[in-house]
Design goal:
- With 478 residues, the chain is mainly alpha-helical.
- 58% of the residues lie in helices and 5% in strands.
- Helix 3 (61-69) runs antiparallel to helix 12 (204-219) and helix 17 (303-318) packs across helix 20.
- The chain is globular.
- The structure holds 2-acetamido-2-deoxy-beta-D-glucopyranose (NAG).
- Heme binds at residue 442.
- Its cofactor is heme.
Length: 478
């Protein structure tokens, strides 16, 4: 009995042998792998000649961290100041401020696909103009709904924008109203305001939209986290507000659409135009498309418009000379009678300084501060002497690009609307990605432009606006 026991390997010995095996074989193997990884991403990859934060060469967590923290507007400004106009910010990701490259990446007819960054935003949606990766699919999809978002079609909705503006003005007279943008979207999409201006509060939906934008801004950099989360969510629950694009906001939109259809409307609102498209071409524009587009109106048309309005009023109040010029122009075009009547789009178009103010506010403070990442196609891309192989992720930060001295000169960081009246327009637009580039231009741009160019002069005619506290700089989060 004793002998038998002695001949057996004790459990401790077995553990020791195992540990020895691990240290002898696996640990060296993983050390070698780690060293190979460091050597490749640090020094051998085709991107290793491109300068940038050292740690970012090795891991996308650098991007994810700043997306989570919301400080891309600061960090990317510093990175470009320190390392130059073309920088590496991830193992396979590059940012550039080169106008030549920008034209190739974002210009008309570009075939650069959107990167995996957008995949979590797309989620399970089969039709998603904004987040669709494939540039050809995007182009075809866009063709079938583009018409509804053209200025010539949107202009039919002007009376409904007017009614929301009038309502907004009357509420501002009595108390603080906050949710103009969200309510306008309700008015033009469903012929009904969501009633937020009355309460002056952020609705649940707007809160969800903001949360989704927040989680999208970091999880997009590490989309595998999103995929694992999706797999596990039946067990662990839902922790990414991101799903709202296919979840809560879509449900909200569906409810609004159904109640609008039940209610009926004499307005030819955007929903009715989308439904018309569906009637003409049910195969291409099916129900999914109608609801997806209406959801996008709600999702993309609210907080973004608010950002644009805030930037305009903030910079006008910080630059009282500009405000005065604008007030004079408004007065020249519409005089001082009927101030309750909203300024028409036609009148707003006769105000070049207003248009310049809107461009300038969007240049200096676009909605997006982080890169709009794309994938380099077959054949690669040359950027300022660097060769980027196919598959590299390349993009530019609209915020940093809009403030680039190479494009806008010494006073790039100043709010100076005059530049839009003096300068060469194509030069000015070469750094303007506030609505994305031509090939994936924001579908709602024309709608925002109509809304904003009406609401700004209308408010300025009706109110004398001031900062509540003149010494406070605004707090930014990207
Ligand atoms: C874009 O993505 C699609 C689908 O993944 C792919 O078939 C196509 O080749 C890509 N295009 C380019 C230019 O990389």
């Amino acid at each position: 009995m004793d002998t038998i026991m002695d001949n057996r390997i004790s459990p401790y010995a077995a553990t020791n042998i195992l540990l020895a095996l691990i240290t002898r074989l696996i640990a060296p193997a993983s050390t070698i792998l780690l060293l190979a990884y460091i050597a490749y991403y640090g020094f051998l990859s085709p991107l290793s000649g491109i300068p940038g934060p050292f740690i970012a060469r090795f891991t996308r967590l650098w991007l994810a961290y700043h997306g989570w923290k919301g400080d891309f507007h600061i960090v990317l400004t510093e990175v470009h100041e320190k390392y130059g106009t073309t920088v590496r910010v991830g193992p396979d990701e590059v940012l550039t401020l080169s106008p030549d490259a920008i034209k190739k990446i974002y210009g008309a007819g570009s075939l650069f696909n959107k990167s995996d960054f957008y995949a979590p935003l797309k989620g399970t949606r089969t039709w998603d103009l904004f987040a669709e990766g494939d540039s050809i699919v995007h182009r075809n999809n866009r063709r079938s709904v583009n018409h509804v978002y053209a200025t010539s079609s949107l202009i039919d909705l002007e009376p409904y924008v007017d009614s929301a503006i009038q309502h907004f003005v009357s509420i501002l007279r009595t108390k603080e109203g906050k949710s103009f943008d969200f309510d306008v979207i309700g008015e033009v999409t469903f012929s009904q305001r969501f009633g937020l201006m009355e309460t002056g509060e952020e609705s649940e939906s707007l809160k969800i939209i903001k949360r989704a934008a927040r989680s999208g801004s970091w999880v997009g950099h590490i989309p595998w986290v999103y995929r694992i989360h999706q797999r596990l969510s039946p067990l662990i629950g839902n922790h990414l507000a991101l799903n709202a694009r296919s979840g809560a906001i879509r449900d909200f939109t569906l409810q609004q659409a159904q109640s609008r259809i039940k209610r009926g409307s004499d307005h030819r609102d955007m929903l009715s135009k989308l439904i018309e498209l569906h009637g003409q071409n049910p195969a291409e524009v099916d129900n999914t498309v109608v609801i997806s587009m209406a959801t996008s109106n709600v999702f993309a048309g609210s907080d973004t418009t608010a950002v644009a309005l805030r930037s305009i009023f903030y910079h006008l109040l910080k630059n009282l000379g500009c405000l005065k010029k604008l007030l004079n122009e408004i007065n020249d075009v519409v005089g001082d009678i009927d101030i309750d009547k909203p300024v028409t789009y036609e009148q707003a178009n006769k105000m070049p300084y207003l248009q310049a103010v809107m461009n300038e506010a969007n240049r200096i403070h676009p909605v997006v501060a982080q890169s709009l990442p794309r994938i380099v196609p077959e054949g690669g891309l040359q950027v300022e002497g660097h060769s980027l192989p196919a598959g590299t992720i390349i993009g530019s930060s609209p915020y940093v690009l809009g403030r680039s001295e190479h494009i806008y000169g010494q006073d790039a960081k100043m709010f100076r609307p005059e530049r839009w009246l003096e300068g060469d327009r194509s030069q000015l637009l070469s750094g303007f990605l506030a609505f994305g580039g031509t090939s994936r231009m924001c579908l709602g741009k024309n709608l925002v432009w109509i809304e904003v160019s009406k609401v700004v002069p209308t408010i300025l005619r009706n109110f004398v606006i001031n900062f509540a506290d003149t010494d406070v700089e605004w707090k930014l989060q990207s």
